[in-house]
Amino acid sequence: MNRKEALAIVKEQLNEARYTHTVGVMETAIKLAEKYGEDVKKAELAAIFHDYAKFRPKDEMKEIIIEQNMSKDLLEHHHSLWHAPVGAYLVQKEVGIKDEAVLRAIEYHTYGRPNMTMLEKIVYVADYIEPGRSFPGVEEVRQSAENSLDEALFLCLRNTIVFLIGRKQPIYPMTINTYNSVVQGGG
Ligand code: GDP
Ligand code: FE
Ligand code: FE
Ligand code: FE
Q1: Is residue 51 pLDDT above 90, yes or no?
Q2: Nearest CA to ligand 1 atom 16
Q3: In this predicted complex, what is the ipTM?
């Protein structure tokens, strides 16, 4: 599957704004892969499909989480987290993507995991800093990604956790586990 085919497949799943975000993540992930010596094609593919399940109905995602024996604690947390692991499952099933490294980068793009691979870090950070994003502090993370992927990853996690605390929102335990791993030097 080439880039054009992949983008055409994902476009059908998304609205215009989310498709534009996806193209931004793809371009950013490719740049990061070139800079940090990761496989550019894998970064491109994972970025293109990272939000594949974003618009699936809540009930469908819930059913997949239960049937596929995914972490039960997902269901106790906000449904905006579900599209990441569900997306990894659906792109394998519906699109036929088999590359485990690519699938895991999709699975962990929202909350990470301890000891992330470079590909996982690239998709996670690219999702946060793509040109369409305007979070407070995003410019600092963009600058940081020029020099250190791990520092950029730390800032993404810090900002996300602080943002959630500011809104009195629960934090998914894996987000905390990822943060701990990053500050303890595990990446
Ligand atoms: P997007 O799909 O490109 O919008 O971005 P993400 O997949 O990274 O994040 C989806 C949503 O999950 C965003 O609104 C994040 O703020 C939110 N999010 C990320 N981590 C957590 C968490 O630990 N807990 C909660 N409640 N929300 C989170
Ligand atoms: Fe997402
Ligand atoms: Fe993200
Ligand atoms: Fe995204």
Answers
A1: yes
A2: 160
A3: 0.96
